[in-house]
């Protein structure tokens, strides 16, 4: 039965010494009243007891008053009460209800102490009863023996059952606490992962669009006086790029809103590479796109990661390769792998070393995206100048160790573009 907080029963449970003292006083009062008023032979005695006197009352009270401290030292009190109980039997005094004090203490040992100590308490109770029976102080029949043994076992079993139930409930509470802490830890990890993903997305979007807008603004400034029409087209491209960047950032940051789920549009993917290459061309980077193999549906995560890899690589080429650089994007769709190679023929080795060892987050973000889906990434300068980003995304069950990238050197000869199938997007330069 549940107890209502603030009720008398819950208060007594919180103040166990008060409730145990009340039990001891009630049991002692009943025992002394029994001794004074009853005066019969007692339950297990064949001869009438001696007349009650002060010693009788003191010994009987010494058997029941220790119940007030039954939760603190129940085993010690159980052993201690055997002494006045033995004196009562030896002097043939009426014990009253002193035996109930021993039963309460036996129950308390079983309920609040371990198995070893509770078994020792049961043995002490058996030995006390056996000593009284063998010395002839009490003369029980075989039926009385069975009843006494059954009562002792019943008290002990009830105490052990209470202890096991309390331990079970405590374990349930601890398990609930552990699950709650684990859930909170999972929530924090999910939030941290989401923040990391949002940071990568924001970096890719901002770095790409701002780089294109910067190049377009520089071209518009140079052509403003001599070729106003070209400058006007550049400013129009900057406006469109700014709107696109704002829309993408709004959709990404929308997941951080707390007033409801964000409405997010579809993420870009490999099908948007032609539009990305077109943007690079409009920004001044002469870019070509080759797609080999049969196009097929990719997992959403791989699709987005591959697109962001090409976007970041072309953005770096636009920013670092120089005004006359060219870039090539090669995409190979294989049965169990997606291969991407982005190259440019920009500035020399010094600039390439700066691009590799820079402190920006672009290359780190690319590595994280590729590693997230079990891919292999190689980044470095090309033989003869320029820069290259090559990645393989596994799509089947082939081990990563069999990837061709694991067997090819980082610095290799330029790609031979003659056998590649060129897409309809041609170089405008």
TrEMBL record:
Residues 414-429 have a biased composition (Basic and acidic residues). One of its GO terms (molecular function) is kinase activity. Gene3D superfamilies: 1.20.5.1930, Histidine kinase-like ATPase, C-terminal domain (3.30.565.10). It catalyses: ATP + protein L-histidine = ADP + protein N-phospho-L-histidine. Keywords: ATP-binding, Kinase, Membrane, Nucleotide-binding, Phosphoprotein, Transferase, Transmembrane, Transmembrane helix, Two-component regulatory system. Residues 400-429 are annotated as: Disordered. Its EC number is 2.7.13.3. It comes from the Bacteria. The chain crosses the membrane at residues 12-34, 115-139, 145-162. Residues 308-397 form the Histidine kinase domain. SUPFAM superfamilies: ATPase domain of HSP90 chaperone/DNA topoisomerase II/histidine kinase. This is histidine kinase. It comes from Microbispora maris.
